[in-house]
């Protein structure tokens, strides 16, 4: 990840007392190892972070209670309208550091073939040769952008003629059953697309969402992944074929990793899992920059209440750190881990995420929603990540 360094030119002599004497020096704050006078914004945020939350914010299990928010933060001229459910969250959460795994090999990869590995062959060399040939035949402008990835440069792919499975970087994995995938391809985008992320109506009882999750978790258990956060589920059914399309991320202590990134820049990493799941098994599954091994865990940080979050956002709006549209609703609030690549390590920082999901904003724009059309034209915030412990802005789009 690129690091920005601030160069400071110091001129004159420090510590001069003029006439009436010395004024008290402003409190200093650190930024990239350079100290500077603390701004009123920084001081205001720190004061909010230091506040003791109301005594009624925690439940009997120590988690902060769920609720809802339907309020304007900021002003009519520059504000954000948050209209969303606020989840119950733990009171303290650690920051995690991940490295690539050290226990993935051909024997582990073979386990994805459900024990039917008699005809499994290593096709890594053939696959890489084919990829190199295809790249050499492309025009320079058509070649894919080389993104930074989390993990090392290792790669392994096995096949039994029908199924393929691969490990990449000791952090990414994939699996495909060609027969099941062809069956799904035949109806993909032809069948009615049912969004069942929050509503399971219209789904066949014999192939329920819970059954689908069991199939996925059984396969992931081979990779020692026991916990995931599902952020999107679509269902397709046509001509006797049915399958679910999922978007999911790793989860640590019930807290998932960020999945609504908006625009991804070079140097950013987006852990992400996708899958097509049929009643007969997984048609395909891809886990990108996903499967790191925890090597370090910070002391638990005290999570800001959502009341503190809205107070902090108001400070940023007052200082024009970012801009909002007071008539365009932000409809989702969640606590997630935000991933940051630091050399060969992935840092997972607890963050409050306030947004309108990209698909909802797209629908609003296509339907002629004047509030979101105006917000888009003016570049108003639709996707906000705020450090859930320090109150610092991580990302705003």
Q: Helix and strand layout, with pairings?
A:
Layout: E1 28-31, E2 34-37, H1 40-50, E3 63-64, E4 67-74, E5 79-86, E6 89-90, E7 92-93, E8 96-99, H2 106-110, E9 121-122, H3 124-136, E10 155-159, E11 163-168, E12 172-177, H4 178-185, E13 194-195, H5 209-220, E14 228-238, E15 241-252, E16 255-256, E17 272-278, E18 281-288, E19 293-297, E20 301-302, H6 306-318, E21 329-330, E22 332-342, E23 345-355, H7 358-366, H8 370-378, E24 383-387, E25 393-396
Parallel strand pairs: 5-21
Antiparallel strand pairs: 1-2, 3-6, 4-5, 7-20, 8-19, 8-23, 9-10, 10-11, 11-12, 12-18, 13-14, 14-15, 15-16, 15-17, 17-18, 22-23, 23-24, 24-25
Helix pairs in contact: 1-6
Question: Would you give an account of this structure?
Answer:
20% of the residues lie in helices and 34% in strands. It has 397 residues and is of the alpha+beta class. Strands 9, 10, 11, 12, 13, 14, 15, 16, 17 and 18 form a ten-stranded antiparallel β-sheet that branches. Strands 8, 19, 22, 23, 24 and 25 form a six-stranded antiparallel β-sheet that branches. The chain has a three-stranded mixed β-sheet with strand order 4-5-21, covered by helices on one side. A hairpin with a 2-residue loop joins strand 15 and strand 16. Helix 1 runs antiparallel to helix 6. The N terminus is likely disordered.
